Amino acid sequence: MSANRPAAVVVLAAGEGTRMKSRTAKVLHDICGRSLVGHVVTAARQVEPEHLVVVVGHAREQVAAHLSELDPGVRTAVQYEQNGTGHAVRTALEELRDRGVEPDGTVLVVCGDTPLLTGDTLQALAEAHTREGNAVTVLSAEVPDATGYGRVVRDSGGAVTAIVEHRDASAEQREIREINSGVFAFDGKLLVDALGKVRRDNSQGEEYLTDVLGIVRTAGHRVGAAVAADHHEVVGINNRVQLAEARRLLNLRLLERAMLAGVTVVDPASTWLDVDVTVEPDVTVLPGTQLVGACHLSTGAVVGPQTRLTDTTVGADARVVSSVAEGADIGDGVSVGPFAFLRPGTRVGSGGKIGTFVETKNAEIGEGTKVPHLSYVGDAEIGDHTNIGAASVFVNYDGVHKHRTTIGSHCRTGADNMFVAPVTLGDGVYTAAGSVITKDVPSGSLAVARGQQRNIAGWVARKRPGSAAAKAAGEQPEGESGSHQGD
Ligand code: UD1
Ligand code: CA
Fold it and tell me: What does the alpha-carbon distance between residue 367 and residue 332 come to, in Å, rounded to a whole number?
């Protein structure tokens, strides 16, 4: 790759993106866990340019802040007024010159709103450009509907002569289906010269980058076009319909890669992956599953249906059914759900179980430990092979502070327990059903923490005379039945 290493990649991202009708700058909208401009920068990084410059303008503080977080090596050039794509590239080159850089070699130009463009295609463009000895090579594409795009005009011999914007095109030129993707390879030095000659005599009064083709060609240099193999790759996002379509296409690309690597995806149409998701072979993903952020699924795991995992790891042969997990670490062979909510800091050791209507947070749950039903486990540490009875609550909040509960290994806690933190139960502890545990329990003890049961005989007949309950009980009120007198 280094033989064809471009001198610079310039990403154009100064436009407002009015048609998104959004508070958020267009290039900051997300598809599959990465911003539009993030996708473009990632593709650009793949060709290892010496300099990577993003032209920012509209919402430049947010865009620049996002970029420095994403890739601190990116330089930004501010285009204060959006006077056209040619002007934008000129702004980027002036920024480089201010830092003593005169691009010597290939300069690639990419739009910040084409998230499906791959590094491979950029690399192929740079290689074709060098191979053909071109001064300019445009990445073109044959599209079913060319409305709105610049058209690639060729002469009778097939040589590229110009790019004409849709609004400046003749009726005949509008028939052309080969469009300008907005992605170019330029000879850096000739680009600098030509940009100085671009005028604003078009219908928008802008400096068009596309005019560089004619200028360079008139000066006797070669101009070419590389046709993209897949026109979907060059789709530019202008509105939210296109945003959804690009997300669908990128998602399908991620799913296909996973499936070809041995992952079973039962319903690709209802399965959503982010770019940072990794899935091992022989994982099965059931319908309605969304994997967000940096998830990792290990071999043999079955996830879904109707499940959303965010930044969560799932161990080998684990099962996650109809559940939501965020920042959780689910061990090998663990069973989760249906209807569990694992919140950040949850770690479930191998062979464990988080069952139905269970919520966990900041909880270290040991190997083989089970929380099967209707419970909240927050700010807790539980040892290995412990069973938490149904409907238990780890009472972690006193209204001011959060406290921790620690429970040992091989414990059997009764149903409907409250563990009022801070509290510690040793190993091998039993607790009685319905206990409110407020004091530490030493290892091997049974804790009983509930009122003694009293049965008040004849109460129903006395207090609810004539009621269905009284009749069902078949009892006479005490004192009115001779047989019971004197008891
Ligand atoms: C541009 C091309 C058109 C091509 C299409 C592909 C020109 C003159 N036209 O048209 O031939 O078919 O892209 O999608 O180049 N930008 C700036 N500063 C500016 C103007 C634009 O940074 O002053 C950025 C925008 O943010 C955007 C990109 O350049 O990322 C393209 O601009 P846009 O206005 O969308 O150009 P199109 O009309 O789509
Ligand atoms: Ca556009």
Answer: 9
